[in-house]
Specification:
- The structure is a homodimer of 358-residue chains.
- Chain A is 42% helix and 14% strand.
- Chain A is an alpha/beta fold.
- Chain A has three domains: 58 residues, lambda repressor-like DNA-binding domains (434 Repressor (Amino-terminal Domain), Orthogonal Bundle), CATH 1.10.260; 126 residues, 3-Layer(aba) Sandwich (Rossmann fold); 141 residues, Response regulator (Rossmann fold), CATH 3.40.50.
- Chains A and B meet through helix 4, helix 5, strand 2, helix 6 and helix 7 of A and helix 4, helix 5, strand 2, helix 6 and helix 7 of B.
- The first copy, chain A, binds a DNA duplex (30 and 30 nucleotides) through helix 1, helix 2 and helix 4.
DNA sequence: GGGGCGCTTGACATCGATGTCACGTGGTGG
DNA sequence: CCACCACGTGACATCGATGTCAAGCGCCCC
């Protein structure tokens, strides 16, 4: 704006101005600058104006860290978010929702990708603790989160999302995995299916187990015996899912419907169905929305999660704690939405039988 | 681990231990604790051991902010990332790549979503400046980034990604928008198409203009006059793209191929093609990979960007600057990859003509 | 006219760490 | 036997801000 700042000379790092510099320029004490910058009352209007002008001229930006250090509460106005990967679409949407709430309150968010590595979880927490974040939103990876108790004891709140933690008692926000899996199966049974395959993620992942259990529970409730051969776990990418799906569909007594319980697995299953030309004969319901899953033919019926709501609720819980809420930890369950698009409504052989029997 | 830490009593916030506490417990001076914690030499082994034990017992975590404040360089080991939205798949992958490089060097990343709001860009930069980030990776939104010069002058480096900044001269890492658009058009022309429609994002977005210009340049080079009626800009979501595409395809002299230059626009175009049952007759090449775009029928031929490489290069450039590189700013252009999947290889009417005429 | 009040203001200690420097100790060499 | 050095160690100032507190000043009221 002024004098030489636009000259093409080799610029050398100018020292960053501090409150002292502003105070000197404005001819006031440093504390008065502090008052003006923080909008405290009891500063004469013309003094405030002089200070503001000096601050603007020097392009002064307060150093939050210095302030946080001195200030009583020591808040850094920063929270930490631990997710599987910031590149994962589900996690990214959760992240965005949390960021929205945080920004509104002047908070910044550190996001860290764990890639399902238990060691990374510990490292990430330690790194954030050294940065004195005011709170954590964590997707638990390790089997045991009890090592986090010390942070809670020191007054740093924590909210777990997506998976239940173990060893600590904190607010959690999770998807209704079990019930939603039941709903998916119920939907397929209603279309007349009896032989329904389950394609699941790694068994060590809690949500994968919950979805499988929901699947088994609904089958049991409906008096439809589960065939162990059709219950597959430990799939984690699309190629293995494609291979397994092809194998299942070429069994002597193949499934007439598939409940695929994870994103990439769904992609693999669809590809297998397409390869075998069976996509219009075998029903499919997928857990987790598939990006542009409504461009595929047939369009994919899904159990859509609500990452936006999960993120928002988690952030709201965290800030409630930061605002002093000391009530007992809450377990929030976020419902899913069954999005009927076609693939899940392909009728099964039981359709006629179901109509005939009662 | 020890004594009462597992008792179910109502825990009250225990004060966070400082170096002084560790020093007292270990019976040494605070400076010695500092030495041990930072691995400085010249500490007697048994003293170091005593300090480490005390630190572990108190679960001491150093306060990085206090250290940064005192330390000469004042580095916070934190960088800021400004993107359209952390939930945008492209930005999320860039973010992940940057995070990978940053984590390796003990850096944490603040990511901020701008949602293409110029005011948000300024706000975000200011918020990060107050937190004294060591560097910025920015997706420019405003028309003019010259207001950022002061940060550069103060020794905070910056790398711009995805779009070229204006008003400042910094390292940039961008996709080869112009050339890739030409390649897409060339590909369609090679299939015999002459009437090729262009579907673009908001004209005020630089990459949208570059892609359109590439499209026009290639048409001109190939002696194929561009029809203004087929050059559409200012699309930003799938519904408007669907509407426009339907309109174009029902023109008296409709295009035989479409080059859609943004993600959501592509989704809209595909939907329109499917609604009109034209997806196997009208060729389509899309800029930017469509998630599971290989499940659609026909599978979508795309110009795939390389967000991972963009993020990695941007981070490497930023850290090179932080390591003292004072060379002139570099403009890195990241190539795209034409992924042939089917939709772009639907032959056009010129195919025969092209073969007939020499 | 003086005590007291309210509004402004700045000196100073402090937050938790690190840089500087000086001190104590034991060994080495002249 | 003493000067000197290297090593280990801690006292103290300091980074950039804010909380505390007291002082200066004008004004009101008795």
């Amino acid at each position: 704006m002024t004098s030489m700042s636009s000259a093409p000379t080799p610029r050398q790092a100018s020292r960053r101005p501090t409150m002292r510099d502003v105070a000197r320029l404005a001819g006031v004490g440093i504390k008065t600058v502090s008052r003006v910058v923080n909008g405290e009352p009891d500063v004469a209007p013309e003094t405030a104006e002089r200070v503001r002008k000096a601050a603007a001229e020097l392009q002064y930006e307060p150093n939050m860290h210095a302030g946080n250090l001195r200030r009583g509460d020591g808040r850094t106005h920063t929270i930490g978010l631990l997710v599987s990967s910031v590149a994962n679409p589900f996690a990214a949407q959760v992240h965005r929702a949390i960021e929205r709430v945080a920004t509104e309150r002047g908070y910044a968010v550190f996001a860290t990708s764990l890639e399902d590595d238990p060691a990374a979880e510990r490292r990430a927490i330690a790194a954030l603790a050294r940065r004195r974040v005011d709170g954590y939103v964590v997707t638990p990876v390790r089997d045991d989160q009890s090592y986090l108790q010390v942070h809670l004891d020191r007054g740093t709140p924590m909210v777990c999302i997506d998976r239940e933690p173990s060893g600590i008692d904190v607010d959690t926000v999770v998807t209704a995995n079990h019930d939603s899996a039941r709903e998916a199966v119920r939907h397929l049974i209603a279309q007349g299916h009896r032989r329904i395959a389950f394609l699941g993620d790694l068994e060590r992942i809690q949500t994968a187990r919950l979805r499988r259990d929901g699947y088994l529970a609904e089958l049991a409730d409906q008096g439809t015996p589960a065939d162990p051969a059709l219950t597959v776990l430990d799939l984690h990418d699309d190629t293995s899912a494609t291979a397994i799906t092809r194998r299942l569909l070429t069994l002597p007594d193949p499934p007439t419907a598939i409940f695929s319980s994870q994103n990439l697995v769904t992609v693999g299953a669809i590809r297998a169905l397409q390869q075998l030309g069976a996509e219009h004969d075998v029903a499919l319901v997928a857990f987790d929305d598939v990006e542009s899953g409504d461009l595929v033919s047939p369009r994919v019926t899904v159990i859509a999660q609500d990452p936006d709501r999960i993120g928002r609720l988690a952030a709201e819980r965290l800030f409630a704690r930061l605002d002093g809420d000391v009530g007992p930890p809450r377990q929030l369950v976020v419902p899913t939405r069954l999005v009927v698009r076609g693939s899940g409504e392909i009728p099964g052989p039981g359709r006629a039988a179901a109509a005939a029997s009662p």
